[in-house]
Amino acid sequence: MKIYLKILISQAMNLLFQKKVLEMELFIHLEVNAEIKGSVKIKPFQSEINNQKIINVIPEVEAYTGVLFKWTFNPALENGNISNTYPFIYIPPNNLKYGVNYQFNLQMYEAGLEDSAATVFISVTTDIPPECTSFNITEDTGGKYILTGVGCNSDTSLIIIYQYGFVNAKNAIIPLTLPLYTTPVDIKIPSKIDTLALIVCDLTGTCRYYISDVPVSQNSRQLDDTDILVNFAADTVDSDYIPSSIIYYAGIVTEEATYNYLFDTNFEFFSKEEFDSFTFSTFLSTMQALLESSYFVNTTVSDNILANVTLSILDVISNFTISITQEQGDFIIEILAPYLSRIDFDVLREIYEIVAESQMTDVLLDGYASCYDGVSTIYRYRNSGDSFRNTSILAGNSSISFYNISGFNDTDVLDIYFTKFAQNDDFFEITFYVTGSFEDYALVLNGESNATAITVEDNVIAQIEGNFNNGTNYKCEYLDGNSWSSSGCNVEDVNENYVTLTLSHLSTFRIQVDEGKSCDVGAGPIATMSVIIFLMIFLIIIFVLSDKKVDHPSVSNSFLLLYPLTSVFIQQAKLRRAVVLMQILTSELLMLTLIGAFHNHFDSPEDKTDNDFDNYYGFQLSRGAAAWALTQAFTIPIFILNAFILKGKPYYLITIPVCIFITVGCFCGLIVMTVFYCLGWTEYWITNWLIFLLFDIATLEIIYSLVLSLFIKVDAYTPTEKDSPTSKPKKDIDKDLSTRRQPEEKEESEYEIIVHQDL
């Protein structure tokens, strides 16, 4: 049968200030295996392609399930590790040769029938960058050098872009100037620079570079630092030379006022610039020069300067519309590396995250972006959901192994983001993002990525690079809101170069020395428990002794008798005051114990901490709220049983043993927890308890009393004649009184004398 292959191939061409997509359509009719049914639509390149950028070919494929794909290239690509079994192809930068015509072949076939494959091919030609005869450097007057690109021309572009820079110790080219349209330039070169570079590009961004050594100067290349501002003003009459002048004068400045002027001028200049890739690289170069200025030879970079630099970098990359290159990502890590311990934690995390996301803009499945300098790592890997359930990644010298994870669809396109950096501790982060879908051979990538929660069915094994001591104990914690918790992250093994961890969830983690029990133990919970138990025992004895002859309460108001704070001040029969006291004190003792248990579950109270009340956030209050809510499971039934004692029910036979059992359990639990908890945590513990103690007494206890008072009524007490000391009939009283007034008469001897007296 016939397959109609509609071929559309394209490459986004990032120009200096615009983005243009060139397309054309091509229809090809092919005779193929009769069992193969479907179609392929690909976007073609209309002109030469830029080998220095990512090349993507993403067909629109319609085929039944089970069809296989294979890409081949003629001539062969220099990188043999490119995945070629998808219905699309992703070719990283610099994998093709300049000015060569390539044939990309796509085969679609059934398993075992590759010889009968439907095949379509397209031809692409790589662009040829501009060429120069030579790059010359000659010494000029006033400490300047003339940099000239000699005989530069381009076969594909009428306009050539020139950018001048230097080669650093890592053989990376660092810009000195903005992209310019003329050559030569006359600029000052810092004395520490030995090799200069000229980058020449056409409008598609295809570039070639030339390097040349700075000639030995007959005069001092480094002027003294007098009249810096005057010289700076003279050198920057043309604003295009502000970046190179900033870099030069930052290397000789010694006065604070002069440094601040250069710093402010640089920020003002770039705030007005429209950023392309060349300008962004120059901006990073000036940031590095200002941080490494000679002004800081005898002092350290101030926190204010460092914060301004990092926030400025963050602001620029947040609004950068072009992908950050590999070289630019590495440069950012290099700039920040000496100051990691002083950079704001959240700012650093955000910079690294944006760098990784930007570098993934044009990456397809099974592709990644990585920046690594031996200390910090930025890594992001992309693949389909079904490939992530059991997989391992290698990021720098760290590795992460996933054995069974869920929470996403097999058709989702996911990015796994890993970053690792060292501040006072070793930090690392693992996050998954949903970035598109891959279903029925159709790959769709979203413009934005959204973090997604991943369920870890079996522990993730993480081997994190770092400098560790074999004889030292380490612990792993994860960021829970604004606090660090040790749950879900365990240290399994420690080596000098890495530590092995098991993770039951994915988050931001830190690895630090386990200081064990070197913290001060807080005595607050034990002291509180001791006071509660002492009051319980002492007042129960007082109430039992004072109420043993009482047969009825002295008041009849049901609410006052039911509300614990008022009830304990009213004499009542049948031990009720004692059991009400046990009820309220046992309830609060139970809440104190549960708050400690919730701190143990959600936090790491056994670890040394510098917690203070300035860091007492709302989420820490949740420990008390949870304990208070759970305590009601004890309070409500005990409250009801004790209430019915007012109606003569002997429920104290139930409530007293239950309260004794709960008290003994709390006693043991509180002692164990207090011994293991550090001081900072016990302060939070007691604070939570005091807050919810007052809240409990002022809310639920009143509500319970009001509700039960509607059903339990206590009748007013009316004395009976039996109970009254004047309950005798009036006639008997008169007789007694009459008898007392008269002398006794002697009875006849034959009568027995009987004396009767009412007691």
From TrEMBL:
Residue ranges annotated as transmembrane are 526-545, 578-598, 625-645, 652-677, 689-712
Q: Where is the signal peptide?
A: none
User: Where are the annotated coiled coils located?
Assistant: none
Renumbered residue ranges of the record's region Disordered: 719-759
Keywords tagged on the record:
Membrane, Transmembrane, Transmembrane helix
Compositional bias ranges of the Basic and acidic residues kind? 720-744
Instruction: Report the Gene3D superfamilies cross-referenced here.
Output: 2.60.220.50
Protein name (Swiss-Prot/TrEMBL): PKD/REJ-like domain-containing protein
Q: Which organism is it from?
A: Stentor coeruleus
